[in-house]
Amino acid sequence: MNRDEFIEYLKPHIRVEDDRLGTFPVMNRGIQIWLLLYSHPSSDSVFNAVLPCHLDPSSQPVVIEVALWESNYYQYGNADTHSLWTRHPQLCQVYLRYQGTPHCGSTFKIDDSAVHKEAVTDTYPEKMITGNTVTLSTTDSLCLKCYSCGQYHFEVALGQCFDQHWICVDCGMFYHNIPTSYVQKLMRAPEHAQSMNKECSGSASCRVWVMETPLVPESMILQTSHLMWKGSRVCGVKLGVFRTPRLGNIASGKWIGFDVDVSIFFFGMHLVISFLTVDTGYR
Fold first, then answer.
1. How far apart are CA 168 and CA 82, in angstroms?
2. How far apart are CA 52 and CA 26, in angstroms?
């Protein structure tokens, strides 16, 4: 699209008074550009960006997804490109970074033996889990595993975003909400990944995260532990449901991170997690 045609398209959405749209400084690590961004109602880090080009003269401008990661923007290929989102658009100057080839994928090995044996489980998408092993890829970067037992329900999201592992836990989820929840988790994946990454910033050979989440209306908690070896694409996840009298003292959804130095090549994953859960006072 030529400049005047694109400005005509923008007029109903936003006011453009100068030549900012025609300036594209290119640097060795990316490009600095003004983009019309639409944000998603459930995310502060993923946006639809409108580009001054189209497939044919009668079509709408091309829309791509970009994600804010730390202080830069990157193309984000996990969202829906077919419609603009609901918040008011903003014309923003962004720095789009060059993106190298991503890693092949990540593997999560789940130990849920401490969840009630009568719990009903469901996985979405189902193809991504074999036994208790979830395998992610660059095209399938998120898997939801849902548990239902009596009055409590919870959902564990296992994802990767810009080569970072992440886990998110929600309680009170029901099966008919799984597709909607899946999209919402994709929209917030950069936020979840950066939140976990901030908890452990050292150079230790092993990282462990622990989190407690209340299971309402039951007086119980879901304890989630996540272990990752430096340089490995395989993570350990341990889930446990326990009765507790101290629900009022639990910081729901808050990860506690540990950097652990392990001098030997291999150490039993369950021993490490068991030690940390006792050491932090969980029962």
1. 27
2. 17
Q: Do 146 and 116 form a contact (C-beta atoms < 8 A)?
A: no
Cβ–Cβ < 8 Å for 130, 97: no
Quote the CA–CA distance of 132 and 92 in Å, as a whole number.
44
Model pTM?
Answer: 0.80
Handedness of CA 7, 13, 15, 19 (dihedral sign): negative
In the chain, the domains with their CATH numbers are 3-97 (no CATH), 107-279 (2.60.270)
- Give kind and range of the element (H or E) at residue 188: none
Contact (CB, 8 A) for 177 and 204: no
**Residue whose token pair is 């889990």:** 129
Angle, CA of 165, 169 and 172, to the nearest 5°: 160
Distance CA 16, CA 80 (A): 26
| DSSP secondary structure letter of residue 264 | S
278, two tokens: 């006792």
Q: 10 Å Cβ neighbour count for 10?
A: 18
Residues 6+ apart with CB under 8 A from 10: 16, 36, 50, 91
Residues 36-93: pLDDT tens digits? 898 877 788 889 898 888 888 888 888 888 999 888 899 887 555 455 566 678 888 8
Name, in order, each residue with C-beta under 8 angstroms of 201's C-beta and a sequence gap of 6 or more: 259
pLDDT band at 174 (very low <50, low <70, confident <90, very high): low
Q: Dig out the tokens for 18 from the structure.
A: 């100068």
- Output the six-digit token pair for 144: 């939801």
Q: What are residue 95's DSSP bridge partners?
A: 32
